[in-house]
Amino acid sequence: QNLWIYTADCMPIFFADKYQRRIAAIRCGRKGLEKNIITNAIKSFEIMGSSRKDILVSIGPSISGDKYTLDKEAIKNLFCENNGSLSNKVNENINTLNNFESIPFDIKNYAYQQLIMENVDPSNIEISNKCTYSLPNEFHSWRRSKNDKRQWSVICTSI
Predict the structure, then answer these.
(1) Is the CB of residue 81 less than 8 Å from the CB of residue 148?
(2) Residue 86: predicted pLDDT
(3) What is the pLDDT of residues 64-83, one digit of tens each?
(4) How many Å apart are CA 111 and CA 97, to the nearest integer?
(5) What pLDDT sits at residue 80?
(6) Distance separating alpha carbons of residues 88 and 156, to the nearest angstrom
């Protein structure tokens, strides 16, 4: 089995159960974070019989926090949907909202915090440090070039 994800600045996130040969792939940006798509993926694995301690997660290249900003309304929506804050850094940034129209937002860190809140073992989480916006020779970025070009990411089960 193999699953493919088509992304630009959003995160391709891959899940695998170490023992069940079960995989999943999601495309996740700010709206996916708001809708708890990561939590729902973990719950789907559990429903199928996987244990959270056996789930491996890989977050692929996406836009980095210093290249992605959210306005006040988007930040409020994100934290309303998720019933509070997920990291001290984001809390610090929210306190600056009165002074700025928008703030930098690290979607990879937010996704990591959601995974930790879902009791995924931190040693089972791998996060790419590559930024789709900052590396034009490696990745497409809608925010950088405003075109429809994307990159494919894939996860496969072994035989």
Answers:
(1) no
(2) 45
(3) 989 998 887 787 777 665 55
(4) 21
(5) 61
(6) 35
Angle at 121 between CA 117 and CA 126, to 5 degrees: 100
The Cα-based distances of 139 to 21, 30, 108, 128 in angstroms read 29, 19, 17, 13
CB contact set of 100 (below 8 Å; sequence gap of 6+): none
pLDDT tens profile 25-51: 999 999 999 899 999 999 999 999 999
Say how far apart CA 103 and CA 92 lie, in whole Å. 10
Taking the C-alpha atoms of residue 155 and residue 14, their distance in angstroms, rounded to an integer, is 7
Residue 34: both structure tokens together: 């708001």
Q: Residue 25: in which H helix or E strand, if any?
A: strand 23-28
